[in-house]
Amino acid sequence: MGEKKEIVAPEHDVNAKWDACIDLTTRRFVYSSLGGAFAGLLFFRSPVTRWASIAFGAGIGIGSAYTDCSRAFDAPPPPKSAETSVSQAAEE
User: What pTM does this model have?
Assistant: First the structure.
């Protein structure tokens, strides 16, 4: 009673795209927040402006991750390689 596992091409594997996007979003959120915290400590005295710089950094991280993930999901499939089209033309 074995299960058949279908092998999906990488450009069509939605689970892999979601995993990559979650990983990218997490990393960019954390690193941008840390960058904002460092900039807040370096440039500002008021706790409110320090928190604002952290929030600004987090927003930049999430925004850039969203842009890259939307490109990953909306990207058209890669074009066929030249070898494939040449070999198909030779067969005909």
Answer: 0.69
